[in-house]
Amino acid sequence: MSQAIQKRIAYIGAGQMCEAIFSGLISSGAILPDHILLYDVNESRLTDLQSRYRTNILTPSAHAYEDLVSWADIVFLSVRPQDARETLSKAGMLFRPDQTVISIMGGVKLSFLEEYIKNAAVVRVMPNTPMLVMEGAAGIALGARCTSQTEELVTSIFNVIGSSYVLPESLIDPLTGISGCGPAFAYLFIESLADGGVEMGLSRDVALSLAAQCLIGAGKMVLKTNTHPGILKDRVCSPGGGTIAGVHTLEEGKFRGVVMDAVVESIRR
User: Fold this and answer.
1) What is the DSSP string of 125-139?
2) What is the pTM assigned to this prediction?
3) Rounded to 10 degrees, what is the CA torsion of 78, 142, 260, 235?
């Protein structure tokens, strides 16, 4: 069991990324469901989450933001970026100096957040969906009122459900192109590996399992051995063997260039 987080955490917006974060925290044992409060305009979504995770929920009302802020130690802003201004115009002035506000709204900068949030420490985080299975990656940019204690608190939350990287805000978008968008690219690669196996006679279930496990294993090899992936690739490519023939085919298709272009285009968008 992970070290307990002795804080009450509220979420304004209960979408898929929000669920990935709090469900990972619950699954790890780092926080109890009754220390989590979810608010969303979609009441059926709230009811579904409460039934599955046993969290507290707060349905829309005239005093919803006041109730949420008064209850919480940490507040996640997880609404759609296009709804940020409306949400902050209602909730921004309610936050206290003893609170931490964590925004996971893509593209919403710290300067914008701190225009509305005048008291609390503000942190911008770019998480990713593998936090659902405690294998996530989070880029963290600290606002002007953050202290070393703020940094320790926020990294402790995200290290429970993966890895965290404290970066200058200017590097959050480049990180997003890899860790935020990258899972979708990885899913395409898994599907493609599996399709190749199916074409050669493997069942779909076996092929998908093999392909997914292949990426898990390869990723862990890079992280655990601290060895450059090019060296690890060379170790698999025996002279005249099947792997180097496959690598040749990928290079003919400009595999590396296409992946790099995908990352760059995602960052630009």
Assistant:
1) EE--GGGGGT-EEEE
2) 0.89
3) -110
